[in-house]
Every structure is written in structure tokens, then in C-alpha cells.
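re the bet — no i am not wrong, look at it urself. input seq straight from the record:
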Amino acid sequence: MSVAAQVTRTSTAIEQTYRERRSGFLAWAIKRVPDPDTAEDVLQDAFLRAVAAGSAFTVVEDAAAWVFSTLRNRLIDLWREGFAHQRAGEVVLSQETLERVAADAGFHPEDRAARNELLAALEAAVAALPPEQREVVLTQAIEGITFAELAKKTGISIDTLMARKRRAMRKLAAALEYWFED
């Protein structure tokens, strides 16, 4: 028999064994992995590897043993990968756990959207202030400059700057109150 014929015969034997014993292989794999989808993926991968390796070695005495060995070896590879991730300190968390942690930390998507809307409303309210009030608020809030430093820099009295900031803060509070009610 030619090599090509032996390769074809081996591949056919592995395929036939897979079709006949797939449910048994799958049941065995399901007992050893976290979920049925992973078991199915491992079985498919093992089958493809068995066909590829079986083609390289043209003589396969027991196709079922060949597929089973390939499946077992593939599971061992997965376990080793898992242990390597654990040794590296990797932790696998469920989606629910991640969402709960994010929400507790203030990173819930709805919270983020609300913060972004609030920030946009605040920016619009600041932009709507008269220029002299806006300058006092932005200079103090963003740059952290004191009234004394700002008075020295602009030549405007501290009392006038404080009055401008007070009027600006009232307008901002009213604008944000409107936003919260809306």
C-alpha cells in the first residue's frame, strides 16, 4: 500500500472513530473542564490534532486510543496553561464580580454617563457666566490662585473678586439645580 493510501486510511479511521465515539469523548472531557463549551472546543482541537498527527504517522493501530490520547494531552496542555497563569498571579473573575467591583468603585457605565452629562452641564453653565465672573471661578478652581494673588495680578480689589465669585457660584448652583430637576 502506498504512503498516500495509508494516510487516507488513517485519517478515515480517525474520522470514523470520532463520529462513533464523539459523545463518549465529550462526556469524558466535560468532567474535566469548567464548562461544556470548553469541552467541545478541546474535543474539536484534539480531533484536528489527531488527524494532523495521524497523517504524519501513517500507521495507527487503534484510532480510538489515538484520539483519546490526543484529547488527554490537549487537556493537560490546558491545565498547564491554567497553572502558569495562577503562578503568575492572574485571577479570573466572573463578569458579575467585575461589574459589582466597578459599581462599588464608582465606575458603573450609567454613573459614568451621568457624570459626563453633569460635566457637560457644568461646562455650559460656566461658559454662560459673564466674562469677569467666569475668570474668577476658573482661575481659582482650575489654577488654584488665591484672591490675594488674583487681586495683585489683575489690580481688582479682593472684595470685588469675592463678590464676582459669589454671584458666579449662585448662577452655577441655579443652573445645576435646573439640570438635576430636568
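see?? Helices lie at 3-30, 36-56, 63-87, 95-104, 109-128, 131-141, 147-154, 158-181. told u. also The chain has a mean pLDDT of 77. so pay up
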